TrEMBL record:
Gene: Rsph9
Top-level taxon of origin: Eukaryota
Family: Belongs to the flagellar radial spoke RSP9 family.
Gene Ontology BP, a term: cilium movement involved in cell motility
Protein name: Radial spoke head protein 9 homolog
UniProt GO cellular component terms: axoneme; kinocilium
Places the protein is found: Cell projection, Kinocilium; Cytoplasm, Cytoskeleton, Flagellum axoneme
Record-linked InterPro entries: RSP9
């Protein structure tokens, strides 16, 4: 929205959008039609540039879509047990989920990335033996690289658990233990904190 009254949907992100947006540095301009020049170009873009005679550009709208996709992939999280995987492989919201206990809610291992698992596939059979295949089918936050990229805090007198990402500054996840209430929101500049390994 440009006026906070009329809203329109963003187009879905493509891999090309994400790859081009990762090359851009600096803050957003606030104008969806603003065009950024791509400084680093791959072989396909170089070939197109030679054919078209135009420099490769990416609109701010596309950069915004790609950044939202990157944030969702990297730091979109859910509490353990909020979703279940059936024996047939489909994933559903767990209607029996009543929230994590306060003890479990304070552990980073009780939260999972809500995206296709990467680290889980690399685990050995011995490591997988202790996992419940119906609830532990996603990557846990405790194995994120670099270690220490999440903070866990208690708010409102210990009644709300808040996780904050140090990689995407501005991402805040909350969970009210013993309830179904959880969610996350991002208020940030849209820039990844690439200095994080040096800050820890």
């Amino acid at each position: 929205s440009l006026n906070c009254v009329e809203w329109s949907l963003l187009p879905p992100a493509t891999e090309e959008m994400v790859a081009r947006a990762e090359q851009l540095k600096g803050r957003f301009q606030g104008d969806p039609s603003f065009e950024y020049e791509c400084t680093e170009i791959n072989a396909e873009d170089a070939e197109r540039l030679f054919e078209d005679g135009k420099e490769p550009m990416i609109k701010e709208e596309s950069r915004l879509v790609a950044t939202i996709e990157q944030i969702d992939r990297a730091v979109g999280i859910i509490p353990r047990g909020a979703f279940v995987k059936t024996p047939l492989g489909s994933v559903h919201e767990n209607r029996n989920f009543e929230g994590l206990s306060l003890t479990e809610a304070k552990k980073l291992s009780s939260y999972f990335h809500f995206t296709e698992p990467v680290n889980l596939k690399n685990k050995t059979l011995l490591e997988k033996a202790d996992l419940d295949p119906s609830t532990d089918f996603l990557d846990s936050l405790e194995h994120d690289i670099p270690p220490g990229s999440w903070t866990v805090q208690l708010e409102k007198g210990g009644t709300v658990v808040v996780l904050r990402s140090l990689l995407w500054l501005g991402l805040t996840f909350y969970h009210v233990p013993m309830t179904k209430q959880y969610g996350y929101i991002y208020f940030g500049t849209g820039e990844k904190n690439l200095d994080l390994p040096f800050m820890l």
